[in-house]
Amino acid sequence: MIVTEHFVFVHMHKTGGQTINNVLSRCLKGRQVIGYHYPYSLVPEQFGQLPLVGFVRNPWDWYVSWYAFNRRPKAKNALFAVCSDGGKGDFKTSVVNLIQLGEDSTTARRYRDALVSVLPKTLRGNRGVGLTKACIANFVDNKTGYYSWLFDRMFGDTKCERVHIGKFENLEADLVRVLKKLSVPDVATIERVLKRSNPQNSSQHGHYSEYYDAELKELVGRKDSRIIEQFGYEFEQDQNTSGVVSMPSTYAIDGSFKKLLDRAKNYLLLSGDYNIHELASRVARIPDDQWTESGREQRYMAHTQTQSLLLIHDDDMRHKNPTHHEQYYSFEQDLKPLMDLIASYYENDGYFIRALFAKLLPGEVIVPHIDSTFSLLHCHRVHVPIVTNDQVTFIVGGERKHMRPGEIWEINNATAHSVENRSEHARIHLIVDWVSNSTLRALERRRRPIPLQPTGMPSATLRNEPCPCGSNRKFKYCHGALT
Predict the structure, then answer these.
(1) Domain 259-442 superfamily per CATH
(2) Residue 145 and residue 153 in contact, taking contact as beta carbons nearer than 8 Å
(3) pTM of the prediction?
């Protein structure tokens, strides 16, 4: 949101807002940046009578842009992570979940619950999704699609004379038209700078009609009908397209890896009757001081109420050549049959990158979070309950489950997940991460070769400064790693 002497610009997602922000910031003196993706309701009181300026986009096009932008591996968006089932969902699956997010159904409530668990309480400092716990918790509407709900949230009553909405499809001309109407000075300069500006935060995709089948086209048309009718939008078919083009899931970008082998959304049961009696007896004899040696609870905020015994682990989350700790070999005889069973489920095409015993203390919780980094997103995270009780609950993607001893579960750690231990006893799980060999090929494709050290490389470059070679990496990860 940008406040100027003449108007307030409200930045609606995926409608050219970043480009307009940059132009207004360059051309208008005295402008104030209030917040990122702030809705009209957060306009400061002293500016409450100023006109509101914003943009709308064809809903069919908007959903394509939203998915294409957020499916990038480096995008971090809680809304996308939840609605795409942690990146597993393709375009249609993810967009259907998003459009129907406000419905009074079990599935929609589960997605809203997952979002509420990971979204912030306020928008202060927000640089992404632009949503809070409260706004999603209050989004219950069987008739309205997500885009229409978001548009109303951002601008309020758009038929009010104070609100001026341009079309994204005619961005330059509509912005100039609105600014002239509001008697903003030196519109000619703004128009000139706008014409020279490159689009910001744009997403790569074809014509939006390529990605819609008849069912999804109808769903958008029905759920977002008010926006479509108010602004005169139609579904425009690209004549050069024959058939529906697939826009695959996030993981398809990096290779063939699929969480839960693409067989389920949140949980996948690998086995339901493994005998963990001997292993549980060994774990019960672990001395108390060994549970605090790893320091994992200090490195990760989500795990502050846990204690861990590391078996296979590297702090740098390396994705190959993992370190097997001394404790692994002391448990190897009991672990090997269990880990062999898990490996066989994944057809032995890979290896274990991490393994640890994780203790959740009595009466504590692992707060809702979404895992990140390449290695955590491209592994099969498997939980084996060792010591537990019926007051311990997993919540993954808004779906609650109690895991029993003898069960082996893969969870989708790429979406919102948490654990509650409401009992007076500690809960202990064996957690292992299995990576397939296909992820190694994807990892190599992502890595760029480190260039030879340029002539005249400054010798006093600090570790956390940008590398002088121009690689856009920190010195310690680039040429600093060679010293």
Answers:
(1) B-lactam Antibiotic, Isopenicillin N Synthase; Chain (2.60.120.330)
(2) no
(3) 0.85
